[in-house]
Amino acid sequence: MFSTFTGPSKPRIYDISPNDTIDELSKKMLSCNVSAYPPADITWYKDGKPVPVCRHRCSKRAPYLYTVFSKSNWTVAYLTIAKVTYEDSGAYLCRANNSEGIAYLHTKVHVRSKYYYQTNKYIITEHISDRSNTFRYISIIVI
Question: Could you give the 3-state DSSP secondary structure of residue 124?
Answer without folding.
Answer: strand
